[in-house]
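A note from the maintainers: we've had questions about how concatenated examples are separated. There is no special marker in the raw files; a new sequence line simply starts the next protein. For clarity in this README we add a label.
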Amino acid sequence: MDILKKSFKKSIWIFHLSTAACNGCDIEVLELLTPRYDIERFGIKLVGSPRHADALLVCGAINAHSKPRLLEVYRQVPKPCLVVAFGSCACSSGIFRESYSIVGPLDKVLKEVDPNPNIVYIPGCPPKPEAMIEGIIMGLEAL
């Protein structure tokens, strides 16, 4: 277990998954890569494959169409992993809560495959980049 703690201290690689999002949160994620916020200086890096990721960043409400893809990506991320619910839609389904196609917030959907997922909630529509940096760092401390 000491090896896991040491590996999470240095850097965290994040896979970004957009599930039925309006792209407001996606734009804020891209803002994190700009020189103004430069999340790579904290060791946080976006990766292109969930198999290389330490954390899963989910934006948008989960609908019936995106649910199987979310569950498949979650199964591919090596455990223990951190799941970041980024934005009001991922945290609580937001304004789409009563829609016919919404299957629930992120924690409800992930409990189908994992009874105790490590989820960090970053609410807002869209959340500020500073909130994402703080949320990920707090989530790492919890792991």
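[label: protein 2]
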Amino acid sequence: MLSLMDEANEERADAMFHALSDRTRRDILRRVLAGEHSVSALAERYDMSFAAVQKHVAVLERAGLLTKRRSGRQQLASGDVEAVRSVSSMLAELEHIWRGRIDRIDTFLKEN
């Protein structure tokens, strides 16, 4: 059984990977990691409604991959580099586990 902390981490990982599963959201994230953008400026780039882009931004924000702030009438979005690093760390951990399993299989096959 997972502890509350482990459960919270798993839920955060689920939210991050869900957010990153969409091509448009990955593109938005790349743009806001390069620099702050207004949600309006982000929306101009896509062939979808402003509301649809807002929803994509909201998914990224809930996952903790970007932050928004108000400046007058504009909502400005910035990428969270630390959050992206945590995704990278999670993937590295999974890779380490699988490489260990593959190494054990290779060893087993060589011995038999």
